[in-house]
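Target chain:
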Amino acid sequence: MQKPIELVVKGKTLRGMYHYPDGDGIYPTVILFHGFTGNKLEPHRIFLKLSRRLTASGLAVIRFDFSGSGESDGDFEEMTFSSEVFEAQEILKFVSYLPTTDAERIGLVGLSMGGAVASIIAGNNPSTVKALVLWAAADIDTIMGIYRQQEKKGYFLRNEHGQIDIGGLWLNENFYADLGKWNTYETLQAYQGPALILHGTGDEVVPPTTAEQYQAALGGRARLIYIPEADHTFNRHAWEEQVLTETTKFLTNTLF
């Protein structure tokens, strides 16, 4: 079953979807964090597909749009990495207090920049988060490197406020300065639970070697699976199937 849910953070309503097994109960619960310019569905509805698989396996799932994305309040130009981390922390708190959540069995899944957010949340809440899955997770250096390359090539158009036009969305003029406050690898080291890392060898956005750095930060507690030739968001049925299968198996085995 599924139903829409809402959470107000700093006056903005975040809109999401709550998936849960049929019948009353208290369930292990997984939170999904979408990527930069993404939303709670993500490409080819992969977040929805994962939610349905996990629910069929007896887990509950919650997936929100961050503010300024999808159906949530706010404008994209207000978003920073820090704002998403803050909202993710509020989402974790919200989920842990739900009467249908087994607060001792909460997992996180993050895609791309959502993976960086998930890493920060896991590192800051090591006693709460019991499972972590990173899909093509970006890190701070990668995000800033992409920006610098594109800026050097003159790809960016700016408005009078210094905001950057990225495909019709204005990016906060302080976005990259804000990134400099964070270190995903350093924060993640505090997380002591199991983790699964999935990354395509053909990822054109986040270098596949980034996955190895995340694995190193986890001190060997993470299993790393490379998806041969897969792109950044696993845009082929076979790639998607492997990601969904491995993620479902890992979370089911870890949270039950």
About this structure: The first strand starts at residue 2 and ends at 9. Residues 237-255 form the longest helix (19 residues). The CA atoms of residues 140 and 182 lie 7 Å apart.
